[in-house]
Structures are given as C-alpha cells and as structure tokens.
C-alpha cells in the first residue's frame, strides 16, 4: 500500500484519492501496484456514488486516447467504484503493448531468478570433494599410517635406485691391466729429430717473407 493512499484514507481525503487514481493506470496499466490501495479505499467506504456524466462507450473498438482523457476528467468530478472499474478495462486496451512488454520482462526476471536460485542450491565442487573425502577416506590408525609410509619409501627406493657399481676386477685380469707399460715422454733422440723437421718447414717461410719485404721497399 502506498503511503500517500494510506494518508488520504486516514484523513478521509477523497480529493487526494481522485488525483492518485486518475494517474494510477498511466503508471501501471496492469493495476497490480494499486490493487491493495483499491481494496483499502473500498474497505474504508471512500468511493462516491456513481454519477453519469458523459456517455460511456461499451464497445472496446471505440476506446482510444481521446476517450481515455475524458474518463480521467470524469473521475476528478465523480470518484466512483464503477468508473474506476471501467477505466481498468479501458486501460487494458489503450496500454495493451505496454502490458505485454511488462509481462515479458516479469517472466524473464522470474526465469532468471529461478536459474540463479537453482545454481545457488547446487553443491560446489569443493563441497562435493570434501564430502567424498569424508566418506571414502576413513581415519587410519597410527600403525596403519607407519606401515603405509614405510611401504611408500620402499617403493621409492626401488624405483629410483642408483645404477649398480662397476664390478671389481680381480685375479689374472687385474694383474694383466697393472702390467701394461705406462706411456712415457719421447726420448732425446726423438726430440732432436722433431726439432730438425720443424726447422725445415719454418726457415723457408722466413726466407720467403724476407724477400717479400725487400721487394716492397724497392717498389716505393
């Protein structure tokens, strides 16, 4: 119930009610927001006795904006229940498109609310996992826990065991390996021969470079 209507009823203000209900159907052609107000005014006996002012059109084909304006003016002169009821019927025709859009919006809002409510009621994955873990995994004793840990450690050692060490060589094979001669540096004779070979290669190169240098000096 609107506060303005409540105040008018408390004060017996029929004139105030006239202006409120004159525009009520423009605001809400379905009259859903004002139905409780209408019922309270009727209960308080504040509707006036109906008076015939302008001719009433009963055929909905004759209901147009001009007729609607005339009904609103008549309501300001005579606030009767019959006139308000007739205006509610006319509003259904005058504002048919607005009412249809309002109903579609309302249905869409209801559907969305139902979807959101359903989603909120669905258990979350974390809650499901928690519930499953509580049911499926019974509490183990200390002895069972220790046995399980030891078993896991044994499996890990077996799985990640290092490569077995190279077997030790014993017996005749070891003696044979140890008896092999150790490589030594070249003897003095070999060193002298290597030096001689190096000089045979280096000296011609140095001579060629010297001749090239002399030629470059003479050409200047």
Topology at a glance:
Elements: H1 3-11, H2 14-27, H3 35-44, H4 65-77, H5 81-94, H6 96-121, H7 125-136, H8 142-159, H9 172-178, H10 188-218
Helix pairs in contact: 1-2, 2-4, 4-5
Give me the Rg, rounded. Answer: 55 Å
Question: Helical region count?
Answer: 10
Instruction: Tell me how many strands there are.
Output: 0
Gross geometry: elongated
Name the assembly state.
Answer: single chain
- What sequence of helices (H) and strands (E) makes up the elements? HHHHHHHHHH
Short description:
The chain has about 220 residues and is mostly helical. The protein has helices spanning about 5-10, 15-25, 35-45, 65-75, 80-95, 95-120, 125-135, 140-160, 170-180, 190-220.
Structure, explained:
- By secondary structure, the chain is mostly helical.
- Among the domains are: 3-108, no CATH class; 125-158, no CATH class.
- 70% of the residues lie in helices and 0% in strands.
- It contains 10 helices and no strands.
- It has helices at 3-11, 14-27, 35-44, 65-77, 81-94, 96-121, 125-136, 142-159, 172-178, 188-218.
- Helix 1 runs antiparallel to helix 2 (14-27) and helix 2 (14-27) runs antiparallel to helix 4 (65-77).
- The model has no long low-confidence stretch (mean pLDDT 78).
